[in-house]
Amino acid sequence: MKSVLTNIRLDAKATNDCIKENKSLIGFDFYTDIPQYSVEKSDVDYIIVFKDASMNMPDGTYTVDDGIIDRVVLKSYEKNVEATVKLYMESDSHIKISNGIPAKMDFYVDRTPLKNILLDRKIALNPVYKKTTKSPTNLLPQVPMNDIAKKTSELLNLLNAKPFIIGSNYIDSFAINDDVKYDIAISFATEVSLKDESGFKIYYDEQNDKAKMLAEILNKTVERKSPLNNLGIHAKKYGDEFFETPIVTVVPAIENSRLDDAHLRDIDYRSKIALAVFNGILEYFKSNSFSFILN
């Protein structure tokens, strides 16, 4: 009798226990027993072949996007099921088997190679404080903004970056008033719309090309995680003087939209935004390191 793959578990939340241990988890659940399998490497990816097995789900791609794992591609052919774990970079893995109903194979990928990108990077995180709110449910904006900043900081700390959470009443006050030389600075703020908008947007310092680059990357990484509309990136002036530090502002939702307000209250949504911002920071430093090597 063939083993039947009944479920694939993707644990890609910013607060999951695996990420706190610098591991990423892909779980495979089988109806009874784990079939015989093989694991091979193809460039940086892992290919797991379950032999004499079938699955009760269609072939397809399952997105993870947690900084180290991009996605998992499942397909069945002849008498086998093949799972290709697509990685962003080279990393080690290990497997844990748990017998039972269902029988579980947990495939872990080591996240510590990301330390090579984030080591000692100084990152300012500014959850903006507001005394009033236009929320239809009276949600104070600093509540979700503080939570997103905290979760982003935790992800960065795990990989030896140096995040600084600096809550303020102003989007750019940390860049003007603080003596620390940051590599990048990110504010988190809500925005009141007069256009009945719903969605997320990114602002960047119009005087800094690196800020625009960071905003473009964050726009893409947030789009991959957020179900809300992408309202684009927008230039703004952060004070009269030029700031060498790239400064951006992430607006994860519109303050006076009922739909957006519901998302801001959702802990899972905040977790997704934190992971999206983390991914954007990671991609920014990877891009800058590559540009440095080319130059």
Automatic annotation (TrEMBL):
Please name the GO terms of the biological process aspect recorded for this protein, alphabetically: peptidoglycan catabolic process
GO molecular function terms here?
N-acetylmuramoyl-L-alanine amidase activity
Its keywords, alphabetically, are: Hydrolase
Alphabetical list of InterPro entries matching this protein: MurNAc-LAA_cat
Q: MurNAc-LAA domain: which residues?
A: 173-282
Protein name in the entry: Cell wall hydrolase/autolysin
